[in-house]
Amino acid sequence: METSRTGFWLSFPVYAAVAALCIAPLLILLVYSFFQVSFVAILKEPTLKNYVRIAGSDTYRWLILKAFGSGLGIAAITAVIGYPVAWFIAKRVKVMKSAMLTLLLVPLYTGDLVRIFAWRMLLGAEGVLNTFLMWTGVIREPIGALLFSSLATHIVLTYNYLPFMVLGLWLAFEALDDRLLEAASDLGAGTLSAFRRVTLPLTVPGLIAGGMMVFVMVAGDYLTPQLVGGASGVTIISAINDLFGTAFDWPLGSAIAWTMLAILMLLFAAAAITVSRSTLGKALAGGEA
Questions:
Q1: Which residues contact 287 (CB under 8 A, 6 or more apart)?
Q2: Contacts from 185-192 at CB under 8 Å and sequence distance 24+?
Q3: 175: closest CA among 99, 87, 62?
Q4: pTM for this one?
Q5: What is the pLDDT of residues 165-180, one digit of tens each?
């Protein structure tokens, strides 16, 4: 009893810091989401009008769907690209594995603005790609659609968040026991069958973990769409930023933020249930694989 009490008081500063820095701001945001704005004053009378307004607004519904759609799309693209990359690093690289993982993470050591403006130099009308294509004679005039377009946004988002997907998958491949593949081969399974019945199910938790990281970061990224997306660069996050800034409508901004957060929590819960029911999840929990 004395030991547990000592442990509680030793860990109390950690719990207090988490409560003060993470939970309290969210609760304040939740409380504000039920208030209203009248001119420049906030009316602190609880109401659901902000949530009703969000549900009835085509613009906000479209921006929220756009944010989650972009998150799902980029997560899918990074999964397709990252899956063979993670497999190669985990299962085929023996000597330079640490160096390859470091190279994979090098772009993350720079700031978001540095990476985004580097892509603007590559995709711009007078950028590296257009200059090269014109020099080789492939095109006669610069392709204007390369920059300030939805295509540019998806290219830069994929580049920025691909390392997170690869890391999630790499951990799953590292945990994959090669003897299971050998056993599948001994039992007559071909390469495709072994992949479908052994490799893929056991790496699903990595796909989900990497996918959720990419999904959340893409859904919350408004810098990239604004700087390379042109007219398509308006996001729900930039709308929240405007509501908290020039519009001074903190309650509506809080309601949109909590709507996004509620949807994310539901997706996280669904992902956690999927992982816990997977073969690897049961194995990690000590259950029957």
A1: none
A2: none
A3: 87
A4: 0.83
A5: 999 999 999 988 889 8
